């Protein structure tokens, strides 16, 4: 939380989010980042809430263009159009596959 506040970024792209993380981050950062969107992964490997979700925290409004599902079921991409003071900017929040897995 401190790092997110200290960096003072206009937009923060997150990976490995869960509904609990969404609740926590939006509750604590709503004054700094009033525009938020999370998409949660629905496949879990345990009784814990599944990770693998992606999220976006922004100081500026944005429009969701697409959630790009992975052909292997993990590691989605999230495409949005950020409406910044400099103009519209496309942002792709991509959940990269770690090199330790095959999928």
What does this structure look like?
This protein has 103 residues and is an alpha+beta fold. It has helices spanning 2-7, 19-29; strands at 11-17, 35-39, 53-58, 62-68, 77-84, 87-94. It has one domain (2-94). The protein is built from two helices and six strands; from the N terminus they run αβαβββββ. The strands form two sheets. The chain has a three-stranded antiparallel sheet, covered by helices on one side.
Concise synopsis of the structure shown:
By secondary structure, the protein is of the alpha+beta class. The protein is 17% helix and 40% strand. It has one domain (2-94).
Would you spell out the secondary-structure blueprint of this structure?
Layout: H1 2-7, E1 11-17, H2 19-29, E2 35-39, E3 53-58, E4 62-68, E5 77-84, E6 87-94
Antiparallel strand pairs: 1-3, 2-3, 4-5, 5-6
Number of strands: 6
Global mean pLDDT: 85
Q: Give the overall silhouette.
A: globular
Main beta sheet: 3 strands, antiparallel
Total number of helices: 2
Tell me the series of helices and strands, N- to C-terminal: HEHEEEEE
Q: Percent range for helical residues?
A: 10-25%
Tell me the strand order in the biggest sheet.
Answer: 1-3-2
- State the separation between the terminal residues, measured CA to CA: 30 Å
Give start-end ranges of low-pLDDT stretches: none
Secondary-structure class:
alpha+beta
Number of domains: 1
Features:
globular, 3-stranded antiparallel sheet, 2 helices, 17% helix, 103 residues, alpha+beta
